[in-house]
Specification:
The chain is built from 15 helices and no strands. The chain is an all-alpha fold and about 300 residues long.
Amino acid sequence: MLPYQTLQEAELELGRELSCAEKLWFDYSRDKSDYYLYCHTILFLFVIFSIVPLPVVFMEIKKAHTILKYKIQPKVKISTQGIFKCYKDVMITFCLVVGPLQLVSYPSVQMVGIRTGLPLPSGWEMFMQLLVYFLVEDYTNYWIHRWLHCKWGYDKIHSVHHEYAAPIGFAAPYAHWAEVLILGIPSFLGPAMVPGHMITFWSWIILRQMEAIETHSGYDFPWTPTKYIPFYGGAEYHDYHHYVGGQSQSNFASVFTYCDYIYGTDKGYRYQKHYLEKLREAGTGNVDGIDSKSE
């Protein structure tokens, strides 16, 4: 809760006039506890999981030809019933695991020093902190993901996420409850190392989940802005990981591809991509959905 009762008190304390964003934040947060503000994270996650995948899912249900040509595994069809079963299962995990975890994890947010007061962070400060969060999460997630593909980790935990060999947006958070808890560690590690404002924390949660939904969408759209991000994996890159499934020792990256390149765990993907390009150059018919699962 802000320690100021009026805008004038806040401006006097800061020694300047508040920006428009700061005035909006003041009006909204001044009579709300820090814990109440933190609990907004649950609402953001629910909205993202429910709304962001809908445009692509809706067009797939309608079999819109304008986007089907961008489907990475066009031979794989998921029924409408199967799509909404996935959403239902995700919401069950959300209600039983994600939501309660958010409710009880506030002491860790307090401990690392994520703040809710004024001033608000500058755009540059937010950008740099978010970059750190993405890099820290990406590197630690890579190694946890590799561990989850060992025999015990895959059989006991990670196989649930791989039930979708051709992923859809709703399947991004579809996982065993233990995986949800385990992968919460790298997600919080960046904010713990470089704590910022609650708005930066919310931005991180929103962007990371939107990235995961795009990566699991099953579609490789040429116009997506993420194609201009250096070393960004994207839907095609991660789709290969699901396509290979339990055999996969390739494409463990959650966001960026540099770890797979450095540690040599993208060789299967690069081999298959080169192989498909050769087939296309040779004029071979439809090469989509090829069963070759080379590692």
